[in-house]
Write a structure and sequence with these properties.
alpha/beta; 7% strand
């Protein structure tokens, strides 16, 4: 698009910027971003975002997520993933790889269809998940082997986790997914130990997700129960919000690059969620090489 219609590309990029920034302003009112280089922010990635960083969800998603996480690391952030998110990654990969190609769904299935990721690579990630995460400098936080002080647990007691789980269950089809997200939010709030702020780097612990619903529900829950103020960070934010916060902090050249990546990612997602486009792609492949249609 940039090559054939630079003016349209610039307009779309500007619109994308405004949408990205307005989402943060509407959600947090007046967020601040004071990057420091002492490494005092711990960023937990959810399973889909981790799969993107590892390249399991296609080229565009890998480039976008890696760029975002890379910028946060430059600002002093540590990247981690919860042990239950690792289990979710493995379940997701098993679900894709155990199905027939024609029955596969989701970003990883699309990446396989477009031949952006080899099936052998996915099997490798499934069988050696910890090593691949280590190579990507993503630390596994094992919730079973990292007990927290009582004072931290009291910041978000089991009763609060149960209440949040009930709230999430109203919007989730699978109990297991709601339990994982409730636990993730609870651990983030406990590790914060009642620290609250409008500044991303001052909350010390945050989870980044690709699921807009869980970020909204958990923030509203914490606000409702007086755990944060209306303009402060909840335990989980959407990756797009994180990108907008980084956008505020980087220079003009990096702003343009971040905008470009968000635009490309949005287009890629639109294609993924359009069954007719996928079906047309299957027909085209069948015409070229029938045995590769799956």
């Amino acid at each position: 698009l940039r090559k054939f219609d630079a003016e349209l590309y610039d307009v779309l990029s500007d619109v994308g910027n405004e949408v990205m920034i307005s989402e943060v302003v509407m959600e947090l009112r007046a967020p601040t971003f004071t990057p420091v280089r002492q490494g005092n922010l711990y960023v937990y990635l959810d399973a889909p975002l981790c799969m993107e960083v590892l390249g399991c969800s296609g080229k565009v998603r890998k480039e976008d997520s890696s760029y975002l996480i890379g910028r946060l690391k430059l600002f002093g952030a540590h990247t981690l993933v919860f042990s239950h998110s690792v289990e979710e990654m493995q379940q997701n990969l098993k679900a894709v790889l155990s199905n027939r190609p024609s029955e596969r769904r989701g970003p990883t299935a699309t990446a396989l269809l477009k031949q952006e990721v080899p099936e052998d690579y996915l099997w490798g990630v499934l069988r050696n998940t910890e090593q691949y995460l280590h190579d990507a400098n993503i630390e596994i936080y094992d919730v079973r082997r990292a007990p927290l002080p009582i004072s931290h647990i009291q910041a978000f007691p089991d009763s609060s986790e149960d209440s949040l789980l009930s709230r999430l269950q109203q919007n989730y089809k699978r109990l297991e997914a709601a339990e994982r997200d409730a636990l993730s939010a609870a651990i983030v709030m406990r590790r914060r130990a009642r620290v609250r702020s409008t500044d991303l780097f001052r909350v010390k612990h945050i989870m980044i997700t690709r699921n807009p619903m869980v970020s909204t529900i958990t923030r509203k829950f914490c606000e409702e129960f007086g755990l944060i103020d209306p303009n402060q960070f909840g335990p989980i934010i959407h990756a797009r919000q994180a990108a907008a916060l980084v956008w505020f902090a980087v220079g003009s050249d990096q702003k343009q690059e971040l905008s470009r990546r968000q635009l490309v990612l949005s287009c890629s997602k639109a294609i993924e969620t359009a069954p007719s486009v996928i079906e047309q792609l299957r027909k085209k492949l069948k015409e070229i090489k029938p045995e590769n249609v799956d």
